[in-house]
Structure formats: C-alpha cells, structure tokens
Design goal:
The protein has a single domain, classed as Arc Repressor Mutant, subunit A (Orthogonal Bundle), CATH 1.10.10.10. It contains seven helices and three strands. Strands 1-3-2 form a three-stranded antiparallel beta sheet. A hairpin with a 7-residue loop joins strand 2 and strand 3. Helix 2 crosses helix 6.
C-alpha cells in the first residue's frame, strides 16, 4: 500500500493515478510549509515575507510592488499589506515612483539584507534535511515532473521559453 494511503488510513486505492499524484503533492506541500514556517517564525518572518525579501535581494535595486507580487512563489492577495509590514520593521523601503504616482517602488534595506544573511545557512541545511536523501539526478527528475504537472495550471511564460 502506498505511503499516503497508509498515512491517511485510506481503505481502498485512489480512483486514478493522477489523484494520487495531486494528493501527494498537496501532502508534501503541507509538510514542507510547516517546517519552513517554523524556521521563518524563529526570525520573525512569514514565508511570503521571506520570499519578498529574497526577490528584492536578488534584484539588487528597487522594484515596483506589483513586480514583486508577480515573482512570488505563492499567490499573495494582499501584497501591499505584506510590504507595509516589512517596511514597518525597516526591512524594506517604499518610494513613490516619480514618473507614475500610482506605482510604489520597494527596495531591501541593510537590515533586511542582514536578516536574510542569517537565514541563508539554516535554509540550506533545511533543504538538505528534507531532500538530501535524494540524488541530484532524482531531484532533477522530480523538478521536471513537477514542472510538467504545473503546465496545465500555469503555462510557461514566453520569456522563459
């Protein structure tokens, strides 16, 4: 009996192999979210806040708020509130765009960079703890399969092809 069926004490097999795939992905997501959530809480962050800070660190300069939202791993319906909380902690700055007053540009502060630097090693350790038992080949295969599964939900964007 497959592991998810045992863990959930399912009495009979899944109706479709695709059902087993989706439910396993959902279960894994919950387990990963829980572990990463615990780590981020130790640093006073949520996962989306961490993701926004990483985006800003990677960019190296200011980005419009909506650009940050479009690059997030998880959909964040209240990006303005999320960024306001980071600004209140002096982890980012927000400035109104001189050319378009409707646009707010955000940038990471040195305090935000320092916080991310403290998280870098614990995060790498977490990735190793969660998936270190898998070979590089297995990881690459899994990434390709997950990307293939995601195609039906979010087709590849033109700039990434």
């Amino acid at each position: 009996m497959p592991r998810l069926e045992r863990e959930t004490r399912k009495k009979r097999p899944f109706d479709l192999p695709q059902q087993a795939v989706v439910l396993n992905v959902l279960r894994d997501n919950e387990l990963f979210q829980h572990r990463f959530g615990q780590l981020f809480r130790e640093y006073g962050l949520t996962q989306p806040q961490y993701n926004a800070l990483r985006i800003l660190r990677g960019e190296g300069g200011p980005l419009p708020c909506l650009e940050v939202a479009s690059r997030m791993i998880a959909v964040v319906p209240a990006i303005t509130r999320l960024l306001d909380k980071l600004e209140a902690r002096d982890l980012i700055t927000k400035r109104q765009d001189a050319g378009d007053r409707r646009v707010w540009n955000v940038a990471i502060t040195s305090k935000g960079l320092n916080l991310l630097a403290k998280l870098d090693k614990p995060l790498l350790d977490m990735y190793r703890a969660l998936c270190g038992h898998m070979t590089k080949t297995e990881c690459n295969q899994l990434v390709k399969l997950l990307e293939k599964a995601r195609q039906r939900i979010t087709p590849e964007s033109p700039e990434s092809s």
